Amino acid sequence: MFRNSAVEWGWPAKVLHWIGALAILVLLGHGWWMTHMVARPERLANYAWHAALGYDLLALSIVRLLWRWLNPVPTLPAETKPWERLAAHGGHVGLYVLMFVVAGTGWVVATTFRTPMTGDLVGIHIPALVTNVERGVRDLFEETHKILAYGLAALIVLHVAGALRHHLLKKNDVLRRMI
Predict the structure, then answer these.
(1) What is the pLDDT of residue 131?
(2) Is residue 1 part of a domain?
(3) CA distance 177 to 6
(4) What is the mean pLDDT of each run of 10 residues along the chain (179 residues)?
(5) pLDDT of residue 143
(6) Is the Cα dihedral 136, 137, 142, 146 positive or negative?
(7) Which contacts qualify for 134-143: CB closer than 8 Å, 24 or more apart?
(8) 125 forms bridges with which residues in the sheet?
(9) What is the pLDDT of residue 7?
(10) Is residue 73 part of a domain?
(11) Domain-located, residue 44
């Protein structure tokens, strides 16, 4: 099925979801690794690769959000309680907001290095949001990026827990229809 329906996600939504999920997990793991494990002289290349994948994830997230707006969202099972509906809606809004805000703060950080990082993985030039800021402002953006990335990671854990709850405890098809 190409388009979403009231009961199932279409294959484009599934592909966008899983590629985005993989990219986010790679970025979260790589972000932690490059800031905690990589020797200082090698960090710049890691930051450039991290920024490049981040730009591509941002573009993918825009496409994904547009697809979601232009297609129906499958309904939750009829037995879903009001608090569960609110939690699901709030969780999805939170995931999208954090994906965009984390990407935006990362974009600012990447373009404020002495040599701005403005290329994605396939070599497309990304314009700088800002080019020159005081060191304290740049540090604030970098710390904000890190804290919000941890918040995104926490929300992803809740998202996965909710999907597993639907599958293992409630025994409905909420998880299956995204696979």
Answers:
(1) 80
(2) no
(3) 11
(4) 92 97 98 91 92 98 96 93 96 98 97 91 92 89 97 98 96 94
(5) 97
(6) positive
(7) 138/108, 138/109, 138/112, 141/105, 141/108, 141/109, 141/112, 142/105, 142/109
(8) 119
(9) 92
(10) yes
(11) yes
Would you state the structure tokens that stand for residue 161, as one six-digit string? 């827990």
The answer to whether residue 2 sits within a structural domain is: no
Cα–Cα–Cα angle for 73, 77, 81, rounded to 5 degrees: 110
Q: Which residues contact 82 (CB under 8 A, 6 or more apart)?
A: none
* Burial of 27 (C-beta count, 10 Å sphere; 0-12/13-18/19+): buried
- Rounded to 5°, the CA angle 159-162-163 comes to 90
**Long-range Cβ contacts of 110-118 (<8 Å, 24+ apart):** 110/47, 110/48, 110/51, 110/54, 112/138, 112/141, 113/44, 113/47, 117/47, 117/48, 117/51, 117/52
Q: 144: Cβ–Cβ under 8 A, 6 or more apart, which residues?
A: 105
Domain tally for the chain? 1
Distance CA 63, CA 58 (A): 9
- Give the CA dihedral 114, 139, 129, 100, nearest 10 degrees: 130
Residue 131 structural domain: 11-178
Give the chain's radius of gyration (CA, Å). Answer: 18
